[in-house]
Design brief:
heterotrimer; A alpha/beta (344); B alpha+beta (309); C alpha+beta (101); A: alpha/beta; 16 helices; C: 101 residues; alpha+beta; Outer Surface Protein A, domain 3; 3-stranded antiparallel sheet; two-stranded antiparallel sheet; 22% strand; globular
Chain lengths: 344, 309, 101
């Protein structure tokens, strides 16, 4: 059922059959129609063609926006010597990867060394990015700056685009502490640019960290399609070295979860092989079950979603702090999210 | 199932399909999946959309998915409310349950305005005489909808009340002939022109005042796949008993005003720029001020016919 | 950004990034990189052309601007010229070259 949908989404199965309209509804809700369109180039008939064309136009805009924002960030930091690492979508688009084709984007994520953080923030502010309203309250700002792995999101005052400036991959308080320093050291510069990206294996590893160990969950289809493409783009040598590298940067558990998802939802033999080479204890039953429930949606989703949320939050903070934070959040007045962040 | 006029399908079957979410409205360039168990909506839809092609049954691909119903389980029964749910996060205030027709029309507008990118959309009503289209820009106090309805009576076909839908590959407007939305005083004006049977039952006390809808005619629906070329762009202002004032608008200004009122121009990108510019080259734009409907109709006819005042 | 640093940079506008539509007194310009639509008058268009012709520094622009416009130097305050340039920079219509190879 749903596993066929994952394969249809990346072009392993054709777009046809009695479940096609249901698939398109699922893909639309999961924000992956652009990626579906990218995986199925060429003229499609009738309404299917309309839906895919619509997604292509929208994601072409996102790609244009992302490319321009990366340029603007480079421009803002010009002359400072700061060389940010582009993360996630921005990196995939800059490198022309399949994981970046047809992708819906709203933020741009960059990683800088902690010692450059203050200067980066100042330069971005000068260039027109300002603190985002949703986290502008005093408690949120303090919380962010002290514990999180990134500055409070900054929004450009004219273009309304968001940039997240990270200095590590997970919050300081997270149970998992990946070696972002090693990953940054291995980052590859982009030609004719002061920007860089992680190398191919580290990109997969970071995606796994973000999806499995970070508190913010995107839709399951988006996340797993990203993992599928990133893994599939690794050559045999890179796949062979993946586990060692994951151990080296302290990200074995999320990478195991990622490999399991890719092998399970896409019948990817290569991912399965790498997972098996890890031996027993790769992915816990409870995590696998929660993921399955999350993917299936329906009535089980709220429970699974809550379990995942609590788990992820748990991964970010020691328990005492977690309680205090949740209480403070509950009593904070809910302001309407005027510019809702939906995907990144 | 091939789409057939709504009136040709049994009422019970239509209600069942709306309850289950298996009804699809095939109107103009869009297929909309509709789901609602609201009785007022059923009645309104069966009446005002009676000539529109719909399909009933599983497996039909849709552009948009719109549910119109209670905001939560509680509000199905306690002081029942209704709102449109277009499937993405968009804050709307819930309405009393009998205002479901308003929720439906709002939801249809939102669905297209915020999710359509294969056409460039502008906020304007569009009517046409033959191949020549007249765009009537939307802004409050302008009387766009009254003028649109009046032009229908004067023998123009309705392309759309709410959106001018411009193709990306050539300068052509696509019809999306949904009902014309009328407010307050204009309801009586249009009832006078079109007859009681053309209007839905007015809803009193909505956030926009009293609201009613003028049905798109069978002839408008039949022509729903016929594009038209924009020849005239009108920026209307209605002022009771005012005499007629016409002033030409510079193409550069007209373009700016149109683009400012487009929900998706930025996303559509280069194609939007090129076709919008080409469109401006091919039409004439005017501001008009008028004090009664008859004057405004004559004005539009003159401007279209002669191209100058 | 330190003014000292930037004054050595050269800037250029790449015409292949633009779609231009003349509308009498003004021109509409679409920038394919940014996706933005701009309205240019004769002055701003002249400045853009100046940087499209060949790369220049900001100092060059300030120096050449009066002659470009057929105005006297007094009529073209430095600050105003600078501000117009900044708008082009902010909009991503002009891009910096590195100062010296």
């Amino acid at each position: 059922m749903k596993r066929a949908y994952f394969k249809m989404a990346v072009g392993l199965l054709p777009l046809e059959g009695t479940t096609l309209s249901d698939f398109l509804f699922w893909a639309g809700r999961a924000h992956i129609l652009g990626q579906v369109a990218a995986a199925h180039e060429g003229e499609a008939p009738g309404k299917l063609g309309d839906v895919l064309e619509n997604a292509r136009v929208r994601t072409a805009h996102d790609k244009r926006m992302l490319t321009f924002e990366a340029e603007r960030i480079e421009r803002a930091l010009k002359g400072s010597g700061i060389k940010p690492v582009l993360l996630k979508g921005a990196a995939y688009v800059a490198r022309g990867l399949r994981a970046g084709q047809g992708r819906r984007v709203s933020d741009i994520d960059i990683l800088v060394e902690e010692r450059h953080l203050a200067e980066a923030e100042m330069l971005l502010r000068e260039a027109g990015w300002v603190g985002e309203a949703a986290t502008a309250g005093e408690y949120d700002q303090a919380y962010y700056r002290r514990w999180m792995h990134e500055l409070p999101p900054m929004r450009h005052k004219r273009r309304r685009t968001l940039v997240d400036v990270h200095h590590r991959l997970l919050p300081r308080t997270a149970r998992l502490q990946p070696r972002h320093d090693l990953m940054m050291a291995a980052a590859k510069p982009i030609e004719n640019s002061s920007l860089a990206t992680f190398d191919a294996a580290d990109r997969f590893i970071h995606s796994a960290i973000h999806i499995f160990a970070d508190g913010a969950f995107e839709t399951a289809p988006r996340s797993f399609i990203e993992l599928y493409y990133l893994f599939d783009d690794l050559n045999a040598a890179e796949q062979g070295r993946l586990i060692d590298r994951a151990a080296e940067v302290n990200a074995l558990r999320p990478v195991a979860g990622a490999l399991w998802a890719v092998s399970h939802y896409f019948d990817a033999a290569n991912a399965h092989a790498v997972l098996r080479s890890m031996g027993v204890g790769g992915v816990s039953l409870s995590l696998r079950t929660a993921i399955r429930l999350w993917v299936r949606g329906g009535w089980a989703k709220p429970l699974a979603g809550f379990a995942l949320y609590v788990r992820s939050h748990f991964m970010r903070m020691p328990t005492g702090m977690l309680l205090k934070h949740l209480i403070a959040q509950a009593f904070r007045r809910r302001k309407p999210a005027k510019e809702a962040r939906t995907v990144n | 199932m091939t789409p057939a006029p709504l009136a040709s399908i049994g009422r019970r079957e239509v209600r069942r399909a709306l309850n289950k979410g298996t009804l699809r409205l095939h109107l103009g360039p869009f297929v909309t999946a509709l789901r609602s168990s609201n009785r007022y909506l059923h009645d309104y839809f069966l009446d005002i959309y009676r000539d529109c092609p719909v399909s009933v049954g599983a497996g039909i691909i849709a552009d948009y998915y719109l549910r119109v119903g209670a905001p939560n389980v509680l509000r199905r029964f306690i002081r029942p409310q209704v709102l449109p749910d277009p499937g993405f996060h968009f804050p709307t205030l819930p309405l009393p349950v009998h205002m479901a027709p308003l929720a439906l029309e709002m939801g249809m507008n939102l669905s297209a305005a915020l999710q359509c990118f294969r056409f460039t959309m502008f906020h304007a009503g569009v009517v046409a005489k033959g191949q020549d289209a007249v765009m009537i820009a939307a802004h409050s106090g302008g009387g766009k909808s009254t003028l649109t309805a009046a032009m229908m009576e004067a023998g123009y076909r309705l392309l759309s009340d709410e959106f001018a839908i411009l193709r990306r590959d050539r300068v052509a407007l696509m019809p999306y002939p949904r009902p014309v939305s009328l407010k307050n005083a204009s309801i009586d004006v249009v009832r006078e022109m079109a007859g009681e049977g053309a209007l839905s039952k007015p809803l009193v006390g909505t956030p926009k005042g009293t609201v009613a809808y003028r049905r798109a005619r069978a002839s408008d629906i039949q022509a729903m796949d016929e594009e038209a070329t924009p020849k005239l762009l009108i920026f209307p202002t209605f002022k009771e008993n005012s005499s007629v004032v016409v002033s030409p608008v510079e193409p550069a200004d007209a373009a700016m005003r149109l683009i400012a009122g487009s929900p998706n121009y930025q996303v559509v990108g280069r194609a939007a720029f090129e076709t919008t510019m080409a469109m401006m080259d091919g039409l004439k734009a005017f501001e008009i001020r008028y004090g009664n409907t008859a004057d405004s109709v004559k004005l539009v006819q003159d401007l279209l016919g002669e191209g100058t005042v | 950004m330190a003014e000292g640093m930037e004054s050595t940079w050269l800037w250029f506008a790449d015409r292949s990034h633009f779609c231009i539509h003349d509308m009498g007194e003004v021109s509409y310009l679409y920038c394919m990189r940014s996706g933005d639509t701009h309205v240019f008058n004769t002055v701003s268009m002249a400045i853009l052309e100046y940087f499209a012709e060949k790369p220049h520094s900001i100092a060059d622009l300030i120096e050449d601007f009066p002659e470009l416009m057929g105005l006297s130097r007094e009529e073209c305050p430095r600050g105003v010229v600078r501000r117009m340039f900044n708008e082009l920079d902010e909009a991503g219509l002009v891009m910096p070259l590195e100062a010296a190879p």
